[in-house]
Amino acid sequence: MKYRYTKFTGDALDDLDLEDLVSKLSDLLLSSGFGSPYAMDDEDRTMQALHDAILDALFNGGVLPEDTLEQLLGDPADGDQSDARSKLEELIQQIIERMTEQGYISMPPDLEAERQHRQGGGGMGPDQQSQVKFEVTDKALDFLGYRALRDLLGSLGKSSFGRHDTREQATGVETTGAPKPYEFGDTMNLDPASTLLNAVQREARELAAASLQPPATSHQSPASRRIHVTHDDLMVVQGEYQSSCATVLMLDCSHSMILYGEDRFTPAKRVALALAQLIKTQYPGDALKVVLFHDSAEEIPLAELGRVRVGPYYTNTREGLRLARRILDRQSKDMRQIIMITDGKPSALTQPDGRIYKNAFGLDPFIVAETCAEVAACRKSGIMINTFMLARDYDLVSFVRRVADICKGKAYFTTPYTLGQYVLMDYMDKKTKTIH
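Given the sequence above, the corresponding structure tokens read:
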């Protein structure tokens, strides 16, 4: 039997970091309709869009070493590049298959026809090809939230982070100071050593005082003496008070979030996923709910956040605040807050009969008055509203500042690029807030 040996050149996929590639595809996987702002379907989640995004990541994203690409494509000076294109198409198909196997995307049932078409074997025509779509999985959304959180914390210069620490000293979770005498209302987080020491010192003083008195008829021997702890001996451990927080994240998904040449909704979704990852990993006692507000308002499961798209909607801010307040009223936490991310003025209102009143021209006094009344209701319920504004129109700025004044909250005027830093800093910086 004869054996033939050839030089091992390896597989191009061996040099591919799939997680890095998925991060590079985050704009596509979290797409909000910016690619086709006047079309409400999933045109940017077709197989062709995925193919083009992977192709761009290979050449411009740095997910493959340059020598691997040169080995794959050969010398550009060669006249016939058909073989190189065929290898490139095959590589992209292998990447898509690996993304499917790893659970980042789910493929349509007619993937084989798509593969035959790309290999030049016929199959679907251009019109049919545009209808083939992929779905983003929960694993991909969870991973993108983790990557977004890591990148945002890195940009903030924070290598570690903990719970919501405040300046209020209380008998709580972690020891940070010397023990103190127990007072009524303190948690019975006793310091045994200090308590027993107090009891021993008190009894020693009492014994010394008793020795100055006439001898008693009988007394306990030192070997049989017991330590009696009284109320005055009790010492409790002091700790940093660590508050719990219930948050409703209000996302504006009106049509203006993808208009005017800027995609504002995809960065907002990325920040929301990072915030969810932060709470899940570092603040498991906190609660996070998501409310979308548009012509009306609705609560959505956190797992569906990455798949949400904008629509041809107005901005019904009052309805979003009303729903958020009802959700937070059911939460028993130290802090209850609303994080509102929007780029537009309130332009819609739900009337008592259920009809939607809309006015997109200027600040409608009726809509503004009703919205501010709901802000006041939130303040009465002890709910703080922090607004992150992605636009800087003069009338809009004055409205947001008015909201902040009513609810004693904060107003941040930011951009899609700095939104994440502001949101996470605001959420983690609870130590500047004294909780009673």
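The mean pLDDT is 77. Try to locate this feature in the token string yourself.
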